[in-house]
Design brief:
The structure is a single chain. The protein is built from 9 helices and 7 strands. With about 210 residues, it is an alpha/beta fold. Strands 1, 2, 3, 4, 5, 6 and 7 form a 7-stranded mixed β-sheet that branches. Helix 1 packs across helix 9.
Amino acid sequence: MPTPVNVAVIYYSATGTVATIAEAIAEYAGKAGAEVRLRKTVELAPQAAIDSNPAWAANAKATAGIAEASKDDVVWADAVIFGSPTRFGNVAAQLKEFLDRLGALWQAGHLADKVYSGFTSTSTPHGGQESTLLALYNSIHHFGGILVAPGYTDPTKFVDGNPYGTSHVAGQGDIPVGEQTLTAARVQAERVVKFTRAIKSGLAAGN
């Protein structure tokens, strides 16, 4: 029987692009045999700001049934896949706030030796995809985590071209997530599950 793997997909999404990618990654991780928790971070923006953008308001309504991420989700997970739209080349405040609140878990050693990966979206091709994921991955190094990025490990990665993680160019919200991004999500999810299972099995055997 394959080693069981728990994957938490924790994301922030304003207008829905990252939410769509998160749902796809969660689905593909489940198909790869993982137990999956799909969680969104707490929204920090005022309701007036959300209501001022129809796409933002629509996404808030569409994802109202998704549970908010908690520290328990990170403790439970063998692998955590974080998602955020870029904010000036960095992760959104909503995800950063969640990461900043993990200090007690870090001190207790609960963030170490887990697999981590990330995904993002930008308005333009050079709008910060790489810098956002690298900024996220800086935190993973501090966690003592094991970074599993997709790299160029599948022929399709030479099409989407981002070895750091699944990414999508959303324009002003008018470019929907398509097959190229969904394929990248599948490759990343399967790779995370594969290596999480191998690492977990190896650690168990070593004990």
